[in-house]
Amino acid sequence: MLTFNYYGHACFQLDDGNYKLVFDPFLTGNPAATIKADEVEADYVLITHAHSDHIGDGYDIIEKNNATVIGIPEITDFGGANVKTINMNLGGTLNLPFGFVRMVPALHSAGIPGGTPCGYVVGIGGKVIYYAGDTALFSDMKLIGQRDKIDYAILPIGDHYTMGPEDAAKAVEMLDASNVIPVHYNTWDIIKQNPEHFKSLVKTATVLIVNPGESLRLDEEQYKRV
Ligand code: NI
Ligand code: MN
After folding, report:
1. Which ligand has its closest atom nearest to the C-alpha of 117?
2. For 120, phi and psi rounded to 5 degrees?
3. What tens digit of pLDDT does each residue of 179-211 get?
4. What is the tens place of the pLDDT at every residue in 58-86?
5. What is residue 225's DSSP assignment?
6. Taking Cα atoms as reference points, which of 207, 161, 217, 205 lies closest to residue 181?
7. What's the 109 CA to ligand 1 centre distance in angstroms?
8. Considering every ligand atom, which ligand is closest to the CA of 49?
9. Residues 41-44: contacts with CB under 8 Å, at least 24 apart
10. Taking the mean position of all CA atoms in its chain, how far away is CA 219?
């Protein structure tokens, strides 16, 4: 099995039945959040950058779950001495018990001195998932799509702080992704978007609109909602 559990804004969990990966766990103060930070289960927490709407409750969740943090050193250094840490940097690939994690570039600001934002390509449950983090459209997305056949791209569409629907639709094309799940919109008015508009712009992939609190099986043909 492979389940995508959307918790709101840019926070989601991938669960392959054995391992739970949580991405950008901003829940406290997140008006779109559908779960409290102390309810989140995680084996690994992957953080794309240090803006508060991404690093969020990360270290509380990591400590409560005895989870491993994955991120650039400038972010993993926030963890105390007892936190299990995997620091990596752009271009690196990790082989982990569930599959692999490749850290890829993102075009944004880091939220921390000396840092860089990133995205992740994750192999889990027989699927390849690309989570862009916060980013503008950039032409090297084409290389990301050539390196791995992306089954699911999880892309921001909110505009203002990241690419908006038009650029995100172009990103889907450059990535040659099979499916796309839009995130990072409608959390606040400043990033208000109609996901149906985004869907109408995407001609090269299946757009899966998932609302906060909803879950989707990624390993089944019919995209069963659970
Ligand atoms: Ni950001
Ligand atoms: Mn953000």
Report:
1. 1
2. -135, 135
3. 999 999 999 999 999 999 999 999 999 999 999
4. 999 999 999 999 999 999 998 888 999 99
5. B
6. 207
7. 7
8. 1
9. 41/13, 41/65, 42/13, 42/67, 43/19, 43/67, 43/68, 44/19, 44/20, 44/68, 44/69, 44/70, 44/96
10. 18
